Amino acid sequence: MSILISPDSFKGSLSALEVSQAIEKGIQIVNPDIATLKVPLADGGEGTMEAMIEATEGEKITVETTDALGRTIQAQYGITGNNNTAIVELAAASGLDKLDKSELNPSKASTYGTGILIRHAIENGSKRFIICLGGSATNDGGLGILKALGFKFKDKHGALVGEGGLSLMEITEIDDSQIVNGLNDCEFKIACDVTNPFIGEQGASQVFGPQKGASTALAKSLDKALNHFADVIKEKYGVAIHNMEGAGAAGGVAGGLCGCLNAELYSGFDLVASSLNLNEVLNGHDIELIITGEGQIDSQTENGKVISGITTLGYRFGIPSIALVGGIQSIANSLYDQGLIAVFSIANKPMTLSQSIANTADLITKQTEQIMRLYSARR
User: Fold this and answer.
1) Distance separating alpha carbons of residues 132 and 189, to the nearest angstrom
2) How far apart are CA 250 and CA 203, in angstroms?
3) Shortest CA distance to 256 belongs to which of 227, 221, 222, 230?
4) In this structure, how many other beta carbons lie within 10 angstroms of the beta carbon of residue 84?
5) Cβ contacts of residue 178 below 8 Å, gap of 6+?
6) Which SS3 state, helix, strand or coil, does residue 79 take?
7) Which residues contact 75 (CB under 8 A, 6 or more apart)?
8) What is the pLDDT of residues 43-65, one digit of tens each?
9) What is the number of alpha carbons within 13 Å of residue 98 lying toward its C-beta?
10) Residues 263-308: pLDDT tens digits?
11) 348 phi and psi, to 5 degrees?
12) DSSP 3-state assignment of 166?
């Protein structure tokens, strides 16, 4: 019998692999003979590349690229060890965390740097891609990515349009005659954990624009620009992305790539689980318990987050799950109906968030030890 250790990262503190190692240490304190299987997870957002590279013994590739404002930076993408899939996180080059708060400007911010990562992977032989959305500073509908891949977007005078969300309003023509060699042979899967459409009150600009520095007026202008871009894509490719569920993710990147690259949207967790063959893992090992976790359990947890995903998957195989979390905001009863038997906070005394972050690994190990003492007595 063995225990599957499959947590998400504790954002701002530990990667999913580091959390897994801390949990394993707690198990071994109680009984070093218990077999463990570590499969770090993610929900398709930041941290997904790291988790999948570790799980498949893949590699990270460092590339000189640009941030959302065009400044030169170094960023990484991953190549999985099991099927040569390239994992590209939008936040790696085009993320909010690459800019100071005072620099946020979705009218100008571009995803071009992410496109450089994708182009590099294509030029080095990759054909299958997982694009992980989340944490972007942009609202350009994927304009920058597509430019980096060789698409040319022209205004009514035949001139190339600039970068950023407002530039979308100027586009009258999409020229794809000089796209990167091999692009048409590539398969793009987009890890997406939101259902927002491309445009409208629930669309990319009006819901997520303010988080990226947009005023109410700018958000409405950006929405009009995305709507125009969607019209041009519909005319060129016959694909209607205006109200497509999930197309508004990451400032409309999801919609732009679906419209111009024939990309497909997937639940982030489901895409990660499929890529890591989690069904086979659960079916092929004699697992009696799953220990999972993430930084906080709240009202969003049941909507495709790691704890929900792995407990539901485990439940199909009759395997119970226990979750370790940094904080407990709320726990949906549906999680208990899907195989989760208990949730434990790692905090063992009153402490500040900074204290918890500074001692996360030790707190996880100590709480895991207590869980295993209780679980072992139950056995």
Assistant:
1) 9
2) 10
3) 230
4) 13
5) 150, 152
6) strand
7) 62, 63, 65, 92, 93, 113, 117
8) 888 788 988 888 888 999 999 99
9) 27
10) 999 988 998 898 888 999 998 888 999 999 999 898 878 877 899 9
11) -110, 5
12) helix
